């Protein structure tokens, strides 16, 4: 356990992982024998990645997660300098494999994770609520392990309502749908869907959303995000890969375009974007600047190998262009 449960930002990773990244010098060929150029192993999981990026920036972050005291994952996490609060479980933290090709294309093979029984689930929930008491932000990210109901994020958002902290959620599939179904009960201050996740909530296609932005028309993305804001979400940060990102809240909408980069790995890019947004918010930045920081962080992460996360010196804010979207789209 960490020496203190107080932190400016509490990240929650219900399904942490050892992120193993192998880099290929060529394209991935199914059924072939391929030689790798490098291998890296990092303590990861989406919330852990957010905490790592914030810690690199000097932000006081605490990662809450389930793991046995003797799990090698915690040894790896300690080497990153990230403070953590671990809820003991019987199983081992999973290993996720990312295969990165020479053009940056990344294929991910994710294990399901260790099962949580009722006692571990209750302990994790209580740990999140306890650590949130003094936090400015609680960031809950990633998939849920076996044994956790899809409604867990929605349930915790409701528990945190009125506590004074802001809450961000970055998840997908069943947990994201359950979260959206519970917006009438309690909605987070921020969600960070990618194009596929936003498309699923809006009943459209990710390809259409990304293509529209690339063609200079962010209207479909803005409309999809605006619907979520109208349902109670404080802000929607929609990350669209190379097309950039759109931020929508009750005061307006903005589009950010990243600089051209040579992608090396997309592992952790979305988590870095979320860390950049939270870092900027804590610093008192207005919405356009928060979006600019988010995209700068995501772009920097995509330009790094393996699961490396960017430090402040690697962030180029001036290279990210942010424009306001016409108010009549809201």
Protein topology:
Layout: E1 9-12, E2 17-23, E3 38-44, H1 46-56, E4 61-66, H2 72-78, E5 83-87, E6 94-100, E7 106-109, H3 118-132, E8 137-141, H4 152-160, E9 166-170, H5 173-181, E10 190-191, H6 195-202, H7 206-214, H8 219-230, E11 235-239, E12 245-249, E13 252-257, H9 269-282, H10 287-302, E14 321-324
Parallel strand pairs: 1-4, 1-8, 2-6, 4-5, 8-9, 9-10, 10-11
Antiparallel strand pairs: 2-3, 6-7, 11-12, 12-13, 13-14
Structure overview:
This protein is α/β, with parallel strands linked by helices. The protein has one domain (9-329): UDP-N-acetylmuramoyl-L-alanine:D-glutamate ligase (3-Layer(aba) Sandwich). The protein has 10 helices and 14 strands. It has helices spanning 46-56, 72-78, 118-132, 152-160, 173-181, 195-202, 206-214, 219-230, 269-282, 287-302, and strands at 9-12, 17-23, 38-44, 61-66, 83-87, 94-100, 106-109, 137-141, 166-170, 190-191, 235-239, 245-249, 252-257, 321-324. The strands form 2 sheets. The protein has a 10-stranded mixed sheet with strand order 5-4-1-8-9-10-11-12-13-14, with helices on both faces. A 4-stranded mixed sheet has the order 3-2-6-7. Helix 1 (46-56) crosses helix 9 (269-282) and helix 6 crosses helix 8 (219-230). The radius of gyration is 19 Å and the shape is globular. The termini are far apart. The mean pLDDT is 92.
């Amino acid at each position: 356990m960490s020496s203190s449960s107080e932190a400016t930002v509490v990240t929650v990773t219900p399904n942490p992982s050892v992120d193993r990244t192998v880099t290929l010098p060529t394209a991935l060929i199914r059924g072939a024998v391929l030689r790798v150029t490098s291998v890296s192993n990092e303590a990861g999981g989406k919330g852990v990645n957010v905490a790592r990026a914030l810690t690199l920036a000097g932000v006081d972050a605490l990662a809450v997660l389930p793991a046995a005291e003797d799990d090698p994952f915690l040894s790896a996490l300690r080497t990153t300098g990230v403070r953590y609060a671990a809820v003991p479980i019987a199983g081992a933290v999973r290993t996720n494999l990312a295969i990165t090709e020479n053009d940056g294309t990344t294929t991910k093979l994710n294990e399901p994770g260790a099962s949580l029984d009722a006692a571990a689930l209750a302990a994790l929930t209580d740990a999140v609520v306890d650590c949130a008491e003094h936090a400015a932000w609680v960031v809950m990210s990633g998939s849920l392990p076996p044994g956790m109901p899809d409604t867990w994020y929605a349930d915790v958002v409701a528990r945190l309502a009125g506590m004074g902290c802001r809450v961000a959620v970055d998840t997908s599939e069943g947990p994201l749908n359950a979260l959206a179904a519970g917006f009438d009960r309690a909605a987070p201050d921020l969600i960070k869907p990618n194009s596929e996740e936003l498309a699923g909530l809006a009943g459209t296609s990710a390809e259409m959303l990304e293509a529209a932005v690339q063609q200079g028309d962010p209207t479909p993305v803005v409309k999809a995000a605006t619907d979520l804001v109208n349902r109670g979400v404080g802000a929607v940060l929609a990350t669209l890969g190379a097309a950039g990102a759109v931020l929508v809240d009750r005061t307006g909408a903005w589009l950010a375009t990243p600089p051209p980069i040579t992608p090396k790995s997309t592992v952790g890019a979305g988590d870095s974007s979320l860390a950049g947004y939270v870092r900027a918010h804590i610093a008192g930045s207005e919405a356009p600047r928060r979006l600019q920081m988010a995209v700068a962080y995501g772009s920097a992460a995509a330009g790094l190998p393996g699961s490396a996360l960017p430090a402040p010196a690697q962030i180029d804010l001036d290279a990210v262009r942010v424009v306001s979207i016409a108010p009549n789209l809201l």
